[in-house]
Amino acid sequence: MCGIVAYIGKQPVFPILMKGLHRLEYRGYDSAGICIYNHNRLNIYKKRGKVSDLEEFVKDKDVSGTVGIAHTRWATHGEPNQHNAHPHYSQFEDLALIHNGIIENYQTLKKELIKQGRTFYSETDTEVLVQLIDYIRVSSRISLTEAVHQALSQVVGAYAVAVMSKESPRSIIVARKGSPLVIGIGKDEFFAASDASPIVEYTNEVVYLEDEEIAVLSLSAKGKPKMEITNLKNVKKVPLIQKLEMNLSSLEKNGYPHFMLKEIYEQPQTIRDSLSGRINMELNTVALSGVIDHKEKFLKARRIIIVGCGTSWHAGLVGEYAIEELARIPVEVEYASEFRYRNPIIYPDDVVIAVSQSGETADTLAAVKIAKKNGAFVYGICNVVGSSIARASDSGSYMHAGPEIGVASTKAFTAQVSVLMLLALALAKEKKMIKKSSLEQIVRAMYELPEKIEQVLKKDPQIADVVKIFTYSRNFLYLGRGYNYPLALEGALKLKEISYIHAEGYPAAEMKHGPIALIDAEMPVVVIATNRGNYEKIVSNIQEVKARKGRIISIVNEGDTEVKALSDFSIEIPRTEAILSTIIACIPLQLMAYHIAVQKGCNVDQPRNLAKSVTVE
Ligand code: G6P
């Protein structure tokens, strides 16, 4: 939610900021703005809408300069308009600030600042912060750095901020708590951003700022760069410089019309990457270092609690089914937002698995902190290397799906499920709950996943064709049983988030307890009918839909006859082991949602009101 980028150095700052904003636009696209220092002043330009609207707006403006900050917004406080867009000035335009996060006590602070004579021009919590810093700086006659320290000690909430000042234009101050911030160290220059994507083409040396740390990035009069990091208690910190492993081409569309389609098509490779080094072809076995290193914790676990949000929560549900089935460890799956506030019972011998693509979701991060506070062992399954959840976890496994830019998660879901399946197998193996032959069979099936996904991708034109007639449907129902139930939830989520069609996922048998009332000739029902175990049951559920004239689109295994005969449309996918079936069966669901949204003319990569990285609660 909101992306921030800052630069100080010798290069023209404008193209760096604009390219950075484009890369961070997945984090919010309600408005965008920049502040560049030139002609002895801080020049702010901001615009409601997308980064491209801002680009158009500044075409005739003087954007020369080598120091600046920029922001792309997902609105929390105050509607998405020009006034509320960032950067925000302090009262006399001496300071400019950008912010990702929420200042929870902003009302109290605002009242006090108004009493002190400050005027506000926006409804945002961010303007309160810049005014507070400036007020402290002026009234106490202290340096900007000290004022930032004092102001941040007074605020309650989450922030990643960058501040510029007219008086000290050769430095930028950045700080974080709860929201992500990474600093890039170039030759004679510094970058700072919400993630590494705006930085990667300039340097691969980065420092991930920790919570409550403040960094002053400056250039001496001779242009010598200097970085000083302190925490809120003014204790100096030695920066830990890390090497960035990110491929620039993974941030481009590479000829695809949308990132979402590109990411759907990347799945054969991302599955290969997520399994690579973790399954052994010769021995037909699995080895997950995070589990091996902490074997005792897992073997002694009273239960496993999986926390996540959105698509990651759906992957967690698939994980629950597999871990309970194979390793016989009780598993609970919780929405992180509920878990963190409902005073959950957490035992020191619980293992909490946090699933998060971004590794920055505020609720999931908070759930991790609560779990750790209660002594549980936390295992993170994240995609973004060095992200907050990855760092806050005791151990974990990266998904290795590469950057996911499309707001609707696709390749991250299949990578999350792959890692959870590896985890289930590794635990079953360690607990000696699985026969060698069964383990070998599943591992062999894992090897075949990328090729089978490729076969499904070849059906893309057929899928696009099938869904054409449903483009203007107003509701969709998705049904599945067993492993396919979480997939029904995920299929419905994909459709609603990018096409704005109301869709619900249900366990097929639960349909009789409510949704069946909605079924008529106008209602498309997507049935995922790939399970062998409860095939007859799902056939009965389909009959129940047919009897009410519902229209069936089924996802079936190759060679299926019974479900196919009952369906209006069927998409055949290659067979695999039950625990792996969601990894293949979700591909047609992703493509269906994609094509419906494109046919409706929706912005699939940046659906309205959504943001990819939800760093506020
Ligand atoms: C947002 C995204 C979803 C994602 C969810 C959880 O809602 O739009 O695609 O599944 O956040 O994000 P995480 O990064 O924690 O997986």
Structure write-up:
It is a single chain. With 617 residues, the protein is an alpha/beta fold. It folds into 3 domains: 3-244, 4-Layer Sandwich (Glutamine Phosphoribosylpyrophosphate, subunit 1, domain 1), CATH 3.60.20; 259-455, Glucose-6-phosphate isomerase like protein, domain 1 (Rossmann fold), CATH 3.40.50.10490; 459-606, Rossmann fold (3-Layer(aba) Sandwich). Helix content is 37%, strand content 24%. Strand 20, helix 12 (362-373) and strand 21 (377-382) form a beta-alpha-beta unit. Strands 3-2-4-1-10-9-11-15 form an 8-stranded antiparallel sheet. Strands 5-6-7-8-12-13-14 form a 7-stranded antiparallel sheet. A 5-stranded parallel sheet has the order 19-18-20-21-22, with helices on both faces. The radius of gyration is 26 Å and the shape is globular. The mean pLDDT is 93. It is built from 20 helices and 27 strands. The longest helix has 22 residues, at 436-457. Bound molecules: 6-O-phosphono-alpha-D-glucopyranose. The site of 6-O-phosphono-alpha-D-glucopyranose has 16 residues, from helix 10.
